[in-house]
Automatic annotation (TrEMBL):
It comes from Melospiza melodia (Song sparrow). The lineage of its organism: Eukaryota, Metazoa, Chordata, Craniata, Vertebrata. GO terms for cellular component: cytoplasm; nucleus. This is Ribonuclease inhibitor. Keywords: Acetylation, Cytoplasm, Leucine-rich repeat, Nucleus, Phosphoprotein, Repeat. PANTHER family: NACHT, LRR AND PYD DOMAINS-CONTAINING PROTEIN 12, NACHT, LRR AND PYD DOMAINS-CONTAINING PROTEIN 3.
Length: 456
C-alpha cells in the first residue's frame, strides 16, 4: 500500500485519519505538507510499529533538527526496515548529522539517504561520513546537493568511499568544491572499491583543470552510467579531455549532462564522435551552450549513424536558427531511437518548424516528447504541427509555450487534439495569450478527453 500526498495542509483530523492508513503502508510520501517536529513523533511510532515501511519521503517540510531526532528514535528500533529516507529542504543543520550517523551505523536496511538543500555544512557531513564507515552501513545512494560543503569535505568523503563498496550514487552538486577538491575526490573514486553508477557535480566550481581526473574516473569505473557536470565552466578544452575518458572502451556511459558548460561549435566534433560511436549513450543535455547551427549540423550527422542509440537530446538555448532545421529533419527521418527532443528557446521560426515537421512525419521517426517553447512560432506553422499531432501516434508530449500563437494557432492545435488518431496526452502552453472563447474551448476539450492534460 502506498500513501502519496503533496502540497496539502494537515489539519489535526486529517492527520489522525492518515496515521491510521500509515500503519499498513509500504511507502509514505508527504512532500510540502507543512509538517513539523510534532508530526515526527507520530511518524517515529509508525516506523517502529510498521515493519513493512520501506520508503519515507518528507521533503520541503519544516521538521528541523528536533523532528529528525524523533524520526531517528523510530529508525533505530530493531523492527525498522526502512530503505529510503528523503529529508531534502527540511531546515536541518549539522546538529542532525550526529543522530543520522547513529542510524547509518546501526541500520543496515537503509540504502538511500537524501539530505540535500539543508545547511549541514562540512562539519556535519564529516560526521555522516563516520557513520558510513561503520561495517553495518550498506548505503547505496547519498544525495548532498546544496549542503554548504567546501573543499575540506573531500578527505572524509574519500575515507568513506574506500570503506563502502556498496555505494552506487553520489550527488554533490551545488557545493563550492573547486578544482583541487574535485581532483582529490576523483583520485579517491578511482582507488575506491565502490561500483559507482551515478556522479553529479553540477555547479561545483569545476574548470578544464578537473577534466583529466574526471576522465580517469570514466576510464576506470565501467559501472559509471550517469555523469552530470552541468553549470561548470569546463569549456571546449575541458570537453575534449572528458571525451578521452568517455570514448574509452571500458566506459559505459548512458546519461551525460553538460548544460551551461561554455561549449561552442568547436566541441561538436568530439560530441559527434561520441554520439555516433558510443552505443551505450542514450541521453545528452547540451542546454545553454553556444553550439550554433554549424555545431547542430555536426550533431545531426552523428545521429544518422547506425551505431547511434541516442534517445534524448536536449539542445535548448543553443543559438540555433532555421538554418539547421533541414539537418535536424534529416536526422529525425533517419534515427529510429530518438524519443525526446528539447529544442526550445532557439529562433527556429515558422519556416524552421515546417522543416522539422517533414522529419517528424517520416515513418522512421519515433519522437514522443517535443519541446518548441519560445521558438518565435506563430499561427502560421500550427496547421503543419496539427497534422503531425493527428498523424504521429507516438507523439504524447508537446510544448509550445512562450510563442505568439494567438486564437488562430491554438484553435488549429485544438482541432488536432480532438481527433481520435491524436495521442498527445500533455500539451504545454505557458504564457500564450488567447481569448475567453478559446479558453472555454480548451476547458471543454479537457472535459471531453480527460486523458489530455493542458498546462497553461
Amino acid at each position: 500500500m502506498e500513501l502519496d500526498i503533496q502540497c496539502e495542509e494537515m489539519s489535526p483530523s486529517r492527520w489522525a485519519e492518515l496515521l491510521t492508513t500509515m500503519k499498513s503502508c509500504k511507502t509514505i510520501r508527504l512532500d510540502d505538507c507543512n509538517l513539523s517536529s510534532s508530526n515526527c513523533e507520530d511518524l517515529s511510532s509508525i516506523i517502529n510499529t510498521n515493519p513493512s515501511l520501506t520508503e519515507l519521503k518528507l521533503n520541503n517540510n519544516e521538521l528541523g533538527d528536533e523532528g529528525v531526532e524523533y524520526l531517528c528514535k523510530g529508525l533505530l528500533t530493531p523492527s525498522c526496515s526502512l530503505q529510503k529516507l528523503w529529508l531534502q529542504n527540511c531546515n536541518l543543520t549539522s546538529a542532525s548529522c550526529e543522530t543520522l550517523r547513529s542510524v547509518l551505523s546501526a541500520q543496515p536496511s537503509l540504502t538511500e539517504l537524501h539530505v540535500g538543500d539543508n545547511r549541514l555544512g562540512t562539519a556535519g557531513v564529516k560526521v555522516l561520513c563516520q557513520g558510513m564507515m561503520n561495517p553495518s552501513c550498506k548505503l547505496q545512494k547519498l544525495q548532498l546537493e546544496y549542503c554548504e560543503l567546501t573543499a575540506d569535505i573531500v578527505e572524509a568523503l574519500n575515507a568513506a568511499l574506500q570503506s563502502k563498496p556498496t555505494l552506487k550514487e553520489l550527488s554533490l552538486s551545488n557545493n563550492t568544491l573547486g578544482d583541487t577538491a574535485v581532483k582529490q575526490l576523483c583520485r579517491g573514486l578511482v582507488e575506491a572499491s565502490c561500483n559507482l553508477e551515478l556522479l553529479h557535480l553540477e555547479n561545483c566550481g569545476i574548470t578544464s583543470d578537473s577534466c583529466t581526473d574526471i576522465s580517469a574516473v570514466l576510464r576506470n569505473k565501467s559501472s559509471l552510467m550517469d555523469l552530470s557536470v552541468g553549470d561548470n565552466k569546463i569549456g571546449d578544452s575541458g570537453l575534449a579531455l572528458l571525451c578521452q575518458g568517455l570514448m574509452h572502451p571500458s566506459c559505459k556511459i548512458q546519461k551525460l549532462w553538460l548544460w551551461d558548460c561554455d561549449l561552442t561549435s568547436a566541441s561538436c566534433k568530439d560530441l559527434s564522435r561520441l554520439i555516433s560511436t558510443k552505443e551505450t549513450l542514450t541521453e545528452i543535455s547540451l542546454i545553454d551552450n553556444n553550439l550554433r547551427d554549424s555545431g547542430m549540423e555536426m550533431l545531426c550527422q552523428a545521429l544518422k549513424d547506425p551505431k547511434s542509440k541516442l534517445q534524448e537530446l536536449w539542445v535548448r538555448e543553443c543559438g540555433l536558427t532555421a538554418a539547421c532545421c533541414k539537418a535536424v529533419s534529416s536526422a529525425l527521418s533517419t534515427n529510429k531511437h530518438l524519443k525526446v527532443l528539447h529544442i526550445g528557446e532557439n529562433k527556429l521560426g515558422d519556416a524552421g518548424v515546417e522543416l522539422l515537421c517533414e522529419g517528424l512525419m517520416h515513418p522512421n521517426c519515433n519522437i514522443q516528447s517535443l519541446w518548441l517553447g519560445n521558438c518565435d512560432l506563430t499561427a502560421g506553422c500550427c496547421a503543419t504541427l496539427a497534422t503531425v499531432m493527428a498523424t504521429k501516434q507516438c507523439l504524447t508530449e508537446l510544448d509550445l509555450s512562450y510563442n505568439p500563437l494567438e486564437d488562430e494557432g491554438i484553435r488549429k492545435i485544438c482541432e488536432a487534439l480532438k481527433k481520435p488518431s491524436c495521442n498527445v496526452q500533455q500539451l504545454i502552453l505557458y504564457d500564450i495569450l488567447w481569448s475567453s472563447e478559446v479558453d472555454d474551448e480548451l476547458r471543454a476539450l479537457e472535459e471531453s478527453k480527460p486523458e489530455v492534460k493542458i498546462i497553461s
